[in-house]
Specification:
The protein has 8 helices and no strands. 67% of the residues lie in helices and 0% in strands. The longest helix has 17 residues. It is an all-alpha fold. The chain is elongated and about 50 Å long.
Amino acid sequence: MALGPTLDTALARTMRLGELLAYYRTTAGYSQNALARRAAIDHSLLHRYELGERRPSRGRTLALARALGLSQAETDELLQAAGLAPESEQLRQLIVSLARCADPVRLRKGQRLLETALETLTPPVVQFDD
């Protein structure tokens, strides 16, 4: 779910991680303590992320994005600001690896990873014309 008006993509790319995280947090109406509780992280760690003193891991970045209710595009912007590959790139790499895989054991493991990754994505809005 997007947070009201979408942040301009070009502007989001020029913002530091801390600025972007603080923007999304305040737009959603959360204090640092409230967001930290929702994302199951220590509030002092969130404070350090926003100050630019620390960088979150991929898992913590995704937990923050989920806690904020960010859209997939907003999540990708947050990941990129954290110096991480966006979800779409991670999925692309996984799909390419699966397509090239000949080992059935590794293929099954990759398929499970792909299924898990697809479950976490924000579903696209699809409209059917009658």
